[in-house]
Amino acid sequence: MAGKGDLKPVRGIRKPGASRQPEPEKTAKKSDKTAEKKSNETKASEGMPKRNSVSPRNANAPKIKRNFSDGKFSRKKKVPLVIICIIGLFALTLFTSFLSYTYLVDRYENPITEDSITIDEGTKVPFKIKKGANSSEIADALKDADLIASKFIFKLLSNFNGYDSKYSAGTHYLSKGLNYDEIMVILSSEPETVKVTFPEGFTVVQYAERLEKNGVVPKKTFLEAVNSIDVSSYSFIGKNDSKKDYKLEGFLFPDTYEFDINANVEDVIYKMLNNFSAKFLPEYYEMADKMGLSVEEVVILASFVEREAKLAKERSTIAGVYVNRIQSDEFKLMQCDATIQYIYRNMNNGETPEKITKEMKEIDNPYNTYLYEGLTPGAICNPSSSSIRAILNYEKHGYCYYVVSKENPKSHVFSETLEQHKQAVEANKIEE
Fold first, then answer.
1. Which end of the chain is more exposed for a tag (fewer CB within 10 A), N or C?
2. For the chain, first and last CA: distance in Å?
3. Model confidence at 121, in pLDDT bands (50, 70, 90)?
């Protein structure tokens, strides 16, 4: 029996200092139940598809390295990569600077000139630069012609050497094997040209033949362009007359020209028209206006003088004859033998007649001044500045006729009346 004052142990209440160990019987029962539960779960899972242990939503989530020593997250530092980039750029700068320096030194010690460049005749080819072409377009054309290996290098050196705006439009000769510097020197030099001289008094047809002979443009191409080219910007050219053989006859100024070996026909014609514009001085317009003549009428009369006058001193005298006729109500016909020669040449492939016959003067043609009144539809040749000035500064006299002198076939005998003219013709035995 317990003594008085002794406490009776109560279930569920642990004595002070007592152990927390479970009762053996209960622990065993609990373990058996746990094992049985796990066994059941295992059997159930065998018939079911396996599932990922990681939630799909978080499967691709970036893993963050944690540093639990200081309670903060830490990321991989990028400082070393920046340093590597800086070092690489520095090395590249040094390398390119070295190349530039050696390149400049080599160019200084071994300068390239046109005379120092050798063109291989076996691979020699014409290379044409169009007007307004830039270095990029030129590089493309060079690459297409297999004259350079790299467009990038050509453009880089072109800019580095200051050639970008110095290339000359026109045709240049290049050959395979030339380096970039040699090509740039050639392309920035004067293009290959051919000089062609057109004497005073040449016709459009004669111009065409000479251009073809010198390999500039074909005769047919030139003659077609003369009548079809746009000349609206040239105010001195009158409206096109359907009766004209060639609308630009008289305005293609006779001179010596330099043309590109592969010249465009329009460029050829415009160069001649621009020359006429420069040679027909501003005061000439005022002088023509005072005479009551248009620029084209001055040119037509000047073409008569150009073909008729054989001596320079007679130009203004002969010019006075035609001015007197055109300003007179009495003379309706110019009766210029040179117009008959013009018609004959056009009908006979440029052949000039030995003399003017009566039959020739009866040819029905708008340029026949023995049949048609006034001036011809257009000029009969391209006159010189001397003949143009002769019309504008014609000699004021009363002559309306002239005939070739017997004593000097290059000179003429002038008359005021028809009776005097008939006597001059008889005296010099000239057949009308």
1. N
2. 187
3. confident
Q: Can you read off the two tokens belonging to residue 314?
A: 């007679």
Residues 6+ apart with CB under 8 A from 384: 200, 201, 254, 306
Q: What's this model's pTM, rounded to 2 decimal places?
A: 0.68
Q: Which two tokens stand for residue 36?
A: 């049985």
Give the model confidence (pLDDT) of 328-369 as tens digits: 988 889 999 999 999 999 999 888 888 899 999 999 999 999
d(CA 149, CA 424): 79
Give dist(CA 141, CA 137) in Å, integer.
6
Closest by Cα among 383, 206, 221, 409 to 306: 383
